[in-house]
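Hi there. Long-time user, first ticket. I'm pasting a complex I've been working with (about 733 residues overall). I'd like to know whether the download I got is complete or cut off, because the file seemed smaller than I expected. Thanks.
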Amino acid sequence: MIIAMDALVRKFDQHKVLNGLTAHIQRGDVVALLGKNGAGKSTLLHTILGFGVPDSGEITLWQTPSIALTQQQKQKIGFVPQQDELLEQLTGAEHLKLFSKFRPDWDQACCDRLVDSWKIPLTTRISKMSQGQRQKLSIVLALCHQPELLILDEPVASLDPMARRQFLAELIDIAAEQQRAIIFSSHIVSDMERIANQVWLLKNGELAFQGPLDDLKESVVRLHFPQSLPEVPKDLTLVRRQQLGNSTTLTVQHWQPQQLATLQATYPAMQVEYLSLEEIFLELNR
Amino acid sequence: MIKSLSIPLVGRKLAGTLPWQPLLAVTQAVFWPSRWLGMAWVLAIGLFVTGMLIEEILPTITGIVGLLSLHLSIPIQINNLTSKKSWLLLPDFKPSVLTLLLILLVLWLLLITGINLNSESPRWFHLHYVAFLFSLVMLPTIYVRHLWPLLAEIVLLMVIAMRPDSRSWLVEHRSSGWFAGLVIMMTTLMWLWMKYRWLHAAQRIGGDVKRTSVFALYGIEIPWLMRLTRRPASLTGTLLLGDGDSWVASMVRATWATWLAPVTFWLLSILFGTPDKPSSKLWTEHVFLVLLTLCPLFTLCAQQQKSSQRLGRCWLFLGGARQSMYGFAERVFFQELAAYTAMTLCLMLLLLPYPMIVPLLCYGISATLLLCYLIFALAGQHFWWSISANLLLLLALLIAMDFLWAKPNFIYLASLALLLPVYPLRRYGKAYWLKLDYAQLKPRQLL
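Hi, the file is complete. Here it is re-exported in full:
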């Protein structure tokens, strides 16, 4: 177990931003952290990293409380923050050299490859770099010491589509090794769908869903009925109902495939539509 | 569709679609960005007007001093606006700011003339000169988008204000045409320069660069020197300081911060000083000497101010639990303090009478410790709280020094008194840092 959370609560001015979260992450998990702006994604990631202290509950990394991690344990973490925290007066090369000097497991070959393929201008001072270049450098700094736990807080927001693709390919390579865990928060849900195998959906400070991505995609569906329905069939957990002329569309969660036969007995022409992660996110956050 | 400046709050009802709408919007954004600042302006103007009406000197002077202090916020606020592209893109932004600056200069001019006509005898440090300088320095501050012209001016004003001979020199020349003409000509030239060069399309207007080097306090960047100050001893210390944490780096920073001002003043007095001019007497003025020798220690406090905002950056590289963060920050601070103290001592040996060196050094170290522990204790508070508390304390310490000069025993006592709050502040800070959310500390740019 790499991360274990138990009834985690974080408050800001008596407002509960995280309200009793319980979850865990193991090696090989690639977790997509989803939620609207202000849902508490960054707070959760910061609490995992020990920046903030839980108001109640517990969070451990490698069985150690996140606020008491040893240096060896911290060496196993890679973090890309939402806003980079680079030292402005250093050049890219100086920054990489500084980190490589103090990171025992620094993979220079990986660093050279990423710098080369992302065309990071190493001789340019950080303060003169564009937002995208700075973000790429932050990602290189987080990846090249081969972390066991990689935490990415909206890492691709400033990247161009080409760099985003390369970054995702890199993440897929890392994830494929099955030795590491990744938590990834982003608003580009399609990207997350490509690499994640787990989803945490934060809503109102609580985990509205946590589990495998495939389970989520099978459990939230859209049901199309070619007639208007006087009432919602029993045993369906309704998320949203749409009426278009004579046809009715129901978005439901906790769907189970065996329910289809029962429904088709009453409504033979009904159809089931499986949704993309982005559509599921939109439906559950309406 | 081209967006025009929107008119917020008060101006909206009055403005309609009149041509002065953008000017009113800029004025509001500069003067009334928050309720508190707006109230402070109203209070200062109210005091000044009341004082003038009832012909009482205290409210008048308080009002003027308040207005001058608030004047500091104008360039800061304009620089804030110019760092936001959404404002820069609005049509009429630049002409509106320039018009506003022109109106301000004229208002100051009227105020100064009024004071000059009213007062026969010079008093209260010749506020008309101060006002002139404030107006004069505002333009370069906005143009360079840096606070060093303001800081330089504050130091200069403090020296002038506390020196009887410079005051009498100003009295002598206060009505001379050449001085007023020079100031007006310089202001006009700077205003025209602003009109044609400021926010020019060819210039790249970047966002606020988070300057981390101590040299940025002086607006100076020398590549080979900065290479020395970037030398790291550890990743954690470097991330906390935002600059190299090696002894070499600390010594270079301390040398630079300690010797830059004295060497500059020395060169100036060689170039321009003659025995009959006040400038050559500066080197015997104790206020000047105290400023020269102790200010570098307070530069260190400004550096600590920034370090205390960077705890999040170094947390992930620090070996140890949260309890060790405070001790680590202290160790980094003490290394810097040792370097600054060594350099300050060298400077004192050259400038101060020997009996004053040890008491003054003790005073400087005590004051720096107090300021630093106050900064640590206020790490998670609103940035302006921390800045205001430090500025006020710094001012009080410098004024106290003016009275205690040449009384070593009192200086030792004062040093001891300054050390007394350090222990409770340290205890409070240590407990407070255990609960502090490092992610909430965002590096802020004041200098």
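A couple of notes from our side: Chain A has a mean pLDDT of 89. Chain A has two domains: 3-212, 220-284.
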